[in-house]
UniProtKB/TrEMBL annotation:
It comes from Candidatus Agrococcus pullicola. This is Glutaminase. Substrate binds at residues 64, 114, 160, 167, 191, 243, 261. Its EC number is 3.5.1.2. Belongs to the glutaminase family. Keywords: Acetylation, Hydrolase.
Length: 402
């Protein structure tokens, strides 16, 4: 048998091919020269399988889709407090290239608009390194997310840097308010280089899965950034990632995402999948017309909306309630998170007082987050404090509750 997923993606692409709505971005001269008919979708699973259809190996500059990754690298290098001191996390409600700063402090509103992104760029790496070295740290970081060495499109870099004045104005404002500590021209050059990294829809899918999977690249196995960084980045993508269409996107598609003016969209569904699309014609918000369509259909067809919750976890406790030698047995199964651990703890509490020996069987547990583990460990501790003998059945030798 052949898995039907590639056929589904091919159908998805065919369903959008005829739509020629939208305009190419033209404010960066070099971007007006691309073939507007290009169309691609790629989906990467948590274990690194990439399904793709259309022009999934066509290269384009990453543009604003680099912003969440620069934010991730700044968080990695400087920590949450320092980054929050320099860039906020509130949606701006303004266009991406507006002077969107908090009125009281002048702090850029979020890292997904240009003023916040240029500030974020300047926070990556050791503060003392020269600007060319900082740009190299950025390209290296983007490459680690993608799992391959990314090139830079020098023609796009030159073309955008030659018309950089609006971004320099934004950087100058951030510099004068003391949120950027380097020369505006240098910060903008590095940021523009970051935006000129060449990616494919396939790369976007892998980069998204790295974010969606807690920072570990599914192809190389490298832990690119710590897990807490991904939570922060995905949250900001959810509220600020789709230019001014973030509310529409949240309700229609419901996948943390970031789009860019060259026509790419990256979507990262925590724990499930990374998605990349590419189609250069943009709508009035600056999002790819057919990219939005692809995401809407994928999300609807595959039930990928983040608010479309899985069935309640009432099956977290197995049916067997007695061991072979007659001791009370509680078998926990599936993923152990707050809701399933709470149910298990309630079952622990129901064990009759006169039962001294109990068996807790965790052999059918598939995953356990730190909260689930802490809760179960506390339950076992309390059972023992009550004077019971607890036998723990664990799935593997390296698995423990401590
Ligand atoms: N490099 C572009 C700029 O700064 C990125 C914009 C975008 O993709 O939204 O204008």
């Amino acid at each position: 048998m052949r898995t039907p997923v590639p056929d589904y993606l091919t159908e998805l692409i065919e369903g959008c091919t005829a739509d020629a709505d939208g305009e190419l971005a033209s404010y960066i001269p070099e971007l007006a020269n691309v073939d507007p008919a290009q169309l691609a979708v790629a989906v990467c699973t948590p274990d690194g399988t990439v399904y793709a259809a259309g022009d999934a190996d066509a290269q384009f500059t990453i543009q604003s889709i680099s912003k969440p990754f620069a934010y991730a690298l700044a968080l990695r290098d400087r920590g949450l407090d320092v980054v929050l001191d320099h860039v906020g996390v509130e949606p701006s409600g303004d266009a991406f290239n507006e002077m969107s700063v908090e009125s009281a402090t002048g702090r850029p509103r979020n890292p997904m608009i240009n003023i916040g992104a240029i500030t974020t760029h300047s926070l990556v790496g050791n503060p003392a390194i020269p600007y060319e070295a900082r740009a190299a740290v950025l390209i290296d970081g983007l490459s680690r997310f993608a799992g391959r060495t990314l090139d830079v499109d020098e023609a796009v870099l030159e073309s955008e840097y030659a018309t950089r004045y609006r971004n320099v104005a934004l950087a100058s404002m951030a510099r004068s308010n003391d949120f950027i500590h380097v020369e505006p021209d240098e910060a903008v050059w590095g940021y523009t280089k970051q935006c000129s990294a060449l990616v494919t829809a396939r790369d976007l899918a892998v980069m998204a899965t790295t974010l969606a999977g807690g920072g570990k690249n599914p192809l190389t196995g490298e832990q690119v950034v710590p897990q807490w960084v991904c939570r922060q980045v995905l949250s900001v993508m959810m509220s600020c990632g789709m230019y001014d269409a973030a509310g529409d996107w949240l309700s229609q598609v419901g996948i943390p995402a970031k789009s860019g003016v060259s026509g790419g969209i990256l979507g990262a569904l925590p724990g499930q999948a990374g998605i990349g699309t590419f189609s250069p014609r943009l709508d009035r918000f600056g999002n790819s017309v057919r990219g939005v369509q692809l995401f809407e259909r994928l999300s609807g067809d595959m039930g990928l909306h983040i608010m479309e919750l899985p069935a309640p976890s009432i099956d977290a406790i197995g049916a067997r309630d007695e061991s072979e030698d007659g001791r009370p047995l509680i078998a926990v199964q599936g993923p152990v998170i707050f809701s399933t651990a709470e149910l298990a703890l309630r079952r622990f509490a129901e064990i009759p007082d006169d039962e001294r020996d109990v068996v807790i069987d965790l052999r059918m547990v598939t995953t356990m987050n730190s909260v689930g583990k802490r809760m179960l460990a506390e339950g076992v501790r309390r059972l023992k404090l009550d004077g019971r003998e607890v036998e723990l059945l664990l799935p593997r030798a390296d698995f423990s509750l401590t």
